[in-house]
Amino acid sequence: MMDNLMLNNKIYLEGKVVSELKFSHEMYGEGFYTFNIEVPRLSESKDVLFITISERLIGGMNIIPGIDIVVEGQLRSYNKFVDGANRLILTVFARNISLCKEKSKNPNQIFLDGFICKEPIYRTTPFGREISDMLLAVNRAYNKSDYIPTIAWGRNSRFCKSLKVSDNIRIWGRLQSREYQKKISDTEVVKKVAYEVSISKMEKVNKNDNDEECVKKADDKGEENLKEAKEEQKNNFNENVEGKRIS
Q: What's the pLDDT at 223?
């Protein structure tokens, strides 16, 4: 069971450290630190992502602004009381970290296997682009769950209209940061940052009476017909993306 829970939430990042290490908290005598890394997109824009790491994992590594690193781990969520209200905070919980010696074509990859916990919201932009927002609950050890905001585009977005709360979904994509402005009063506006998983491919998973998995796939190339998958679906967890493997 523990191995399965490790496989349902995996992220791989290559990026440049852009902040100093900052002490976060201590748990059972183990100290944890946070820092930010800047991960490039295919366009000229970049995502600034929040990393949490154990002091035991850092070892003698000198994590300072300017160095390029590889982070592998899981995307975690927790509630934090900020400005008089609870906020959902997302962080990449590092399980492995190393210097980046060679950059890949895809420096930002994530795989999640979870359950829809809020009704998907479908909408179109003023320019007619289709978007769907989903909140995914991904199980973790010790009866905990991480709640991950996700966003789908195009045909994936239309596919989301057929989904409902409690549906089991597998998604592949990237973790992105997005700046927005929030109006505090008539004269005050503050800049905030939201984090979400941008979906590039997704699967809906059900179980039939024979306990065989039925998988319906939808990706940017179009929606596929419902397929019965008798082979072990765990092979999906080790799918290669652009020559790099999420592990």
A: 42
For the segment 162-170, the average pLDDT, to the nearest whole number, is: 96
| 178-204 burial code (b ≥16 CB/10 A, e <16) | eeeeeeeeeeeeeeeeebbbbbbbbbb
Claim: this prediction has a pTM higher than 0.85:
no
Side chain identity at residue 170, one-letter code: R
Confidence of residue 3 (pLDDT cuts 50, 70, 90): low
Cβ neighbours for 235, distance < 8 A, ≥ 6 positions apart:
none
Instruction: State phi, psi for 88 to the nearest 5 degrees.
Output: -85, 120
Closest Cα partner for 74 from 17, 106, 112, 37?
112
User: Averaged over 83-107, what is the pLDDT?
Assistant: 91
Residue 10 corresponds to which tokens in the numbers above?
């995996």
